[in-house]
Amino acid sequence: MSVSSVQPAQAISSTNVHGAWQLLSYDVEEQANGNTFAPMGDNPSGYVIFTAEGRLSFMLSAEGRQPGSNAEERSALLSSMIAYTGIYRLEGDRWITQVDVAWNPEWVGTEQTRFFAIDGDVLTVHTPWRVMPNWPEKGLTRSIVRFKRCR
Fold first, then answer.
1. Nearest CA to 148 among 21, 20, 19, 49?
2. 120-151, pLDDT tens digit by residue?
3. Burial of 9 (0-12, 13-18, 19+ CB in 10 A)
4. Is 132 exposed, middle or buried (0-12, 13-18, 19+ CB in 10 A)?
5. Predicted model pTM
6. Do 26 and 142 contact (CB within 8 A), yes or no?
7. Cβ–Cβ < 8 Å for 58, 83
8. Which of 70, 72, 92, 149 has the highest CB neighbour count under 10 A?
9. What are the domain boundaries of the chain?
10. Which residues of the chain have pLDDT under 50?
11. 9-149 architecture in CATH?
């Protein structure tokens, strides 16, 4: 079942998001000027999986990642991925995840809110506006992530 872009956000139900979604793109938008950039390259990879039982698993990886050959290189790999899981709930056009495991320990025990829309087999996700520690000089930014439904 899918939701058309002409349907109101309230029509989105958990059955619409259940299943696996493969990453199409990951961009970041700057609020001040509308510019976008691809922090993990033009071809990152990843998935988000929503189970019927209410669990979410999210994994995103930068293009071109290579195994680290020393502690410094292996440590640097953490900045080229995003991964978390937890129990999610839907509220209108938002999904909120109570994070219980994450690549970033600061997220564990927090709620992560994402705004989303489904158009056919495409899921578009926006984070709230925030200042990211990876690029604080850019001011307020938000991530825009697009997925396609796995068949």
1. 21
2. 999 999 999 999 877 889 999 999 999 999 98
3. middle
4. middle
5. 0.86
6. no
7. yes
8. 149
9. 9-149
10. 1-11
11. Beta Barrel (2.40)
